[in-house]
Sequence to fold (333 residues):
Amino acid sequence: MISYKLFFLCNIVYSRSINKKSGFMSAKKFKLRFRLKIFGVQLFIILFIVVIQGCAQNNPVIDVFPKGTILHGNVAYNNDTLQKHLLDIYLPPDAKGKIPLVVFIHGGGWLSNDKYVDIGYMKKTVAEIISSGFALASIDYRFSTQAVFPAQIQDCNRAIAFLYDNADKYGIDKNRFAVMGFSAGGHLASLVGLSENNDITTFFMPGTNDLFKFRAVVDFYGPAELILFPGASDEKSPEALLIGAAPLARPDLAKAASPVNYVDKNDPPFLIIHGEKDALVSTKHSQVLSSWLSVVGVQNELFIVKNAPHFGEMFDSDEVRNKVIAFLTKHLK
Fold:
């Protein structure tokens, strides 16, 4: 708000200062006009500083990334003005040639948080992703309180299609995509990765390019089967808000939104990571997803982090981080 006021005031001052009149100008008027010009310049400088500082503050996690990381922030991926249809692209400094991309999907029960939140406690992992030569794109999507499923997966696919269509612009290799998600974002990352080869038209907005493929999926403690939740009969539970009904009351809707129902032999490799003491999303979700992948012959690894809760810095440990980087390097480099 202050920047607009300053801009308005600068306009007034500047306009008055250049309003030249014919005839004799007294020393008093000349001095006043000179002071007004100086004042206008000072206000312009203040305005410039405010705007620059505001732009820097728009991304609260940029300091997590290695020095020199190139940021393309708040890029609209659906050609509209919705706040939840924005993404951030982080590129390694001095990158040469086309680089592989990791798409980052945040958690929050499908009804909260944003594209910065999981970066905040995965600082070392995120930094190493960039320093290892990968690009990272963190995306926002509509909450279940704004639109029920499949709106969330439609948004994710739209964002990924945008990245695919604009890969050359950002120096990204469109043939080397991986997707990574956390909690609700892990659910969406799994769903995006598993359903991509199933031709589910309802998972795409009209006109969305569906040519992109994934070489790898990293799923951090994402729900895999909605009816496994203790609150599956509660119409006010997060999973019920997601699909618009309690999962046990509408098993058809729960099935359509559950990643395990899209597993087939052509799916990309999975790295599944879950906390041993997760009290929000049971380890059974990751176990059943891993089992289904194994049944059809899809390469996968399930890693249970000892004593870890649902989310937090325990997932940014050296052991977990090394697994993630090794997995991405194996499948994207």
Notes: The first strand starts at residue 70 and ends at 76.
